[in-house]
Amino acid sequence: MLAAGQSKRFRSAHSKLVHPLGGRPILEWVLRNLRAIGAEPIVVVVGRRAEEVGRTCGPGVTLAVQSEPRGTGHAVLAARAALASFRGSLLVLNGDLPLLGAETMRRLVAAHAASGGPLTMLTARLAQPRGWGRILRRGGAVTAIVEERDATQAQRAGQEVNVGVYCVDASVLFPMLERVTPDNAQGEIYLTDIVARAVLAGVRIGDVAADADEVGQINDRGELAAMEKALRARINAKWMQAGVTFEDPDTAYVGPEVEIGRDTVIGPNVHLRGRTAIGEGCRLDGSAFLTDSIVGDRTHVRFGVVMTEAEVGPDCQVGPFAHLRPGTRLAREVHIGDFVETKNTSLGCGTKANHLAYLGDADIGSEVNIGAGTITCNYDGFRKSRTVIGDRVQVGSDTQLVAPVKLGHDAYVASGTTVRREVPAGALVFNPRGEEHRAGWVEARRASQGVPRGPVPRRKRAAPKRPRAGTKKAGAGKRGRRAPA
Q1: pLDDT by residue (tens digit) across 275-326?
Q2: Are 298 and 281 in contact (CB under 8 A)?
Q3: Most exposed among 29, 97, 308, 481, judged by the fewest C-beta atoms under 10 Å?
Q4: pLDDT at 6
Q5: For position 27, what pLDDT does the model report?
């Protein structure tokens, strides 16, 4: 795989191949398809951004360094040492072909094996082939590839293009490239010149056609955005065919590893990333952002919900405007309401936290009710501690649970309570604070501030002045006369 380009048109401090596309680096799309067809070994030719490209490739990939940018043919020659002991057919391709499917790669390899020839290439027909190298034929056979900058006007009119993917016998490829000379506008060693060399040697070139929607390349930010849109449309179409409803497919962002059950409805501006899995019969209202999360069957995710590494059981209601952070585990029929945040917390079956709560590092039982304004105080500045709440506990509004603390089954926490010690099962816990009323306090306070006694008088608005006779006003004609109606 050729990944040594300088990405000049991308205007980035990084290789274009490490930029994300559909939630993955561009390079990773190609690597996954190579692994899917059993390609081995995988050698990636890198340039001056070798380190970041190597990190993106991960283990199991051999890196070959192109010392200077002297063209695609020179880049392939840089891989010769890494393939010194290899015998067989080499699949050579560019790293910026993320939509090229594994099945198309298999067809090319199979066609090459069946042909018995040394070289088979991938071609495509494009309605707008500008910027692509053109395929030249004679008598139906491929005779050469000419880059657009080197092509004549007649050659540029052709719509059949070189995709940049070849299957070549290893014993032929490197000796052929050594004979290629940089006789072109760029002064580079073109990989495409091996086709003309093979024809001169009397070898018939095999070719396989790819679909136009598989061969899009990414050279700048505009093409990256267009590719993102095309990829999103392809993924969403697959799920609609599988029985998923998208209220606005153009604004739904679904990652390639996401799973969605049938009869689920996805609203506008929903992002499903990573290994997120949505069950059957769910509804996601809109503007939700789910990453690496699981949502059980028939669960309703309301507007503005964010989930990361969370697990939600069936028949739950989440949101609006809820934040489920990593480690959240909801059993079935749990309700999480507006402005509730959870982290590293489990909630049992039928438990409800409907408003304005923070539940962090907690184990909460079944049929518990968490009142508005409740927080688990899980961090003391040095360590995090857990809160344990039994089944059927009622937690009143504006409660602080200072961890580590445990509330037994059926306990009742009065509103406005700070709980610091274990609460026995079935007990009521409250902070014994009296309620005082001070008569006349408001009047005394106003007097100390120089405010008049009683209600503060409202300032009257001045009535508008009436114009004197003979003066102009809106709607009046010349010399003070009223304009005709």
Answers
A1: 999 999 999 999 999 999 999 999 999 999 999 999 999 999 999 999 999 9
A2: yes
A3: 481
A4: 79
A5: 94
Q: How far apart are CA 478 and CA 474, in angstroms?
A: 11
Which secondary-structure segment (H or E) carries 227? helix 221-241
Q: Which domains does the chain have, with CATH numbers?
A: 2-214 (3.90.550.10), 221-429 (2.160.10.10)
Task: Please confirm, yes or no, whether 271 is among the known catalytic residues.
Answer: no
Q: Which range (83-87, 137-141, 365-369, 476-480) has the least confidence?
A: 476-480
Q: Which residue has the tokens 């052929």?
A: 176
Selection from 163, 161, 170 nearest residue 43 by Cα: 170
3-state secondary structure of 26: helix
The answer to whether the peptide bond before residue 25 is cis (omega within 30 degrees of 0) is no
Find residue 266's DSSP bridge partners.
246, 284
Angstrom distance (rounded) from CA 158 to CA 148? 10
- Inter-CA distances, 403 with 118, 345, 346, 355, Å: 71, 13, 15, 21
Task: Please report the pLDDT score of residue 454 as a whole number.
Answer: 61
| Averaged pLDDT for residues 76-82 | 93
Catalytic-role residue among 19, 300, 335, 355 = 355
